[in-house]
Amino acid sequence: MGLYFSISGLLFIIILMYNFFSKERINSLETKIYKYMIILTSFGLLLDIITCIIFNAGLDYHSIAYVFASKFVFAYFVVWFLLFAFYIKSISITNVDNRKNLLNTTFYLFIILFFIVIPFIFILPVDYELVNNVIVPQGIPVLLTYGVSFILIIYSVYITIRYRKNIVKNKAKPLYIFVVLLMFNFLIQRFFPEAFLINFLLSLTVIIMYFTIENPDVKMIKQLNIAKDQAEKANRAKSEFLSNMSHEIRTPLNAIVGFSECLIESPHLDTEAKDHAKDIVDASNNLLEIVNGILDISKIEANKMEIVSKEYNPKEVFNGLCKLIIPRIGSKPIEFRSNITEDLPGILKGDVGKLKQVVLNILTNAAKYTDRGEIIFSVSCINRIDTKKCSLNIAVKDTGRGIKKEDINKLFNKFERFDEDQNTSTEGTGLGLAITKSLTEMMGGRITVSSNYGEGSTFRINIEQDLISMEAPVGSSEEIEIDYSLHTGKRILVVDDSKINLKVANNILKPYNFTIVEATSGFEALELAETGTFDLILMDIMMPKMNGVECLRRLKEIPGFDIPVVALTADAIEGQDEKYIQAGFNDYLSKPIDRYQLNRVLNKYLGGK
Ligand code: ADP
């Protein structure tokens, strides 16, 4: 009976070995030990089969062949339990600091044990007795084998209990299974002494270990999942870092742009100095674009980008974009033509901020990568009155350098730039189109490109927006003009903890002839607002001790307080304006302060055209 068990066990182990060795494996210590356990188990089963054959062939069990074979069986048991205990130890002390030292010590101890026990097994004599037709070996080698095996099992159980917190539940399974199997074996052995099953049970343990934890596929998937989690964590940390850095960079940039703009407008400077100041503004705006790009991509990757829908006038938006792009073309011999359909509805609803960003990006690219010829910006639409949807088709066609066929697929990848030799004179990060594609898709739209290298490219965006009304809203105007004389004598309170930012605000506000009062903290602002009268308060959000939102709350507690308060922040996050308006601010200005936006705010709250 034992023979049949051993043969079937061996067959099973051979299949398992084939499976195990033909697959790519994780190169961990426990997997290595397991590898030796499989090889050893197949060797043990082979030995079992040989001893059974010798016995069945009627050979005397006192013969040299039988004695030798049985001594190998004892040695096999000892080595098997040594490996098993070492395996258990290696999966138990995963999170321990001195894992390497502990494992090394165990390894050397086990080696010493091996060299003490094995010679005794081979040198000392063994007796055999035939009980109920079963050969029962006796003598010191037998006692040694059982004793050492028993100690190793106890040791394994002890290790599992001691390090139970470290062992992933699944990993303790082979030990539990083994203990149950061993008890099962004793029971069977007790009632059917002729069934010498121990070896078969050892192989069963190895097989079960394969199916529970050592299957290379399962292990690989687990390791990959761990690696994926780690990578995701690192990516989130990176996104957070980038977004913090971008915020930090925007604050000093605010000062650079602000002061340079003041220099351009200063009556005391000559043209050369003003030209330099203009170059500083241009370079800073480029830097700002890059910072915004990084902020955007990190937000997209961290899934923090949100769609903020608002009503807007599409004609106004697209005409505004044309005005923005003309200065980007500069003095290049390019004819810019816009072809905006007359049937654009008066009011659409969608994320107009992101729509502007994506269209401006492809227009800017056309301006950047075209040296001569023309750029045609066309907008057409299909209005579905019944479903209240408007499908916008936006196309930007240029006669620029074009994109090679093999590069088209990579066009929307991050940090991908082509024709580096030509690109050296054109600034960019290779983030623009990756952001454009992500934003377009977030809005439910599609972006496509067709291009002939050397002839030009056409970028098309198709996007659906809610159709609110075919009629344009009354009173909307594209231009904001400001009459500086209107503001003479008006009192403005500017609250910012950074002296340099206060100076920038002061300079920007100078042409309006306001009386400007500065406060460097929320507390100071509260004091000033209580004692003096103001027509407008510009309030920084990020201030130590009392932030802008808290300061506003306290201001509103002053009886009769009705001064408009505008939030100032370096957070260029889309949808943030709504947040500040919800917090009670009348309006919102992002840093670096854009003069167009500033005029809009001043006109709205101080009166103007
Ligand atoms: P950036 O302009 O910052 O390099 P983009 O992601 O906007 O990054 O563009 C990626 C690359 O695609 C550019 O570097 C350029 O090589 C190519 N490209 C984009 N638009 C055009 C265009 N209209 N014509 C030719 N090449 C273009």
How would you describe this structure to a colleague?
This protein is 57% helix and 15% strand. It has 19 helices and 14 strands. The strands form 3 sheets. Strands 3, 4, 5, 6, 7, 8 and 9 form a 7-stranded mixed beta sheet that branches. It has a 5-stranded parallel beta sheet with strand order 11-10-12-13-14, sandwiched between helices. A two-stranded antiparallel sheet has the order 1-2. It is elongated. The N and C termini lie far apart (104 Å). The mean pLDDT is 83. The structure holds adenosine-5'-diphosphate. Adenosine-5'-diphosphate binds next to helix 11 and helix 14. Adenosine-5'-diphosphate binds at residues 365-366, 369, 398, 400-403, 411, 416-419, 423, 428-434, 457.
Would you summarize the structure shown here?
With 609 residues, the protein is an alpha/beta fold. The protein has helices at 2-22, 29-56, 64-92, 99-123, 140-162, 169-191, 198-214, 216-265, 271-301, 314-329, 352-368, 405-408, 420-423, 432-442, 499-509, 522-531, 548-556, 576-582, 595-606; strands spanning 127-131, 134-138, 310-312, 334-340, 347-350, 373-384, 389-398, 446-452, 456-469, 491-495, 515-519, 536-540, 565-569, 587-590.
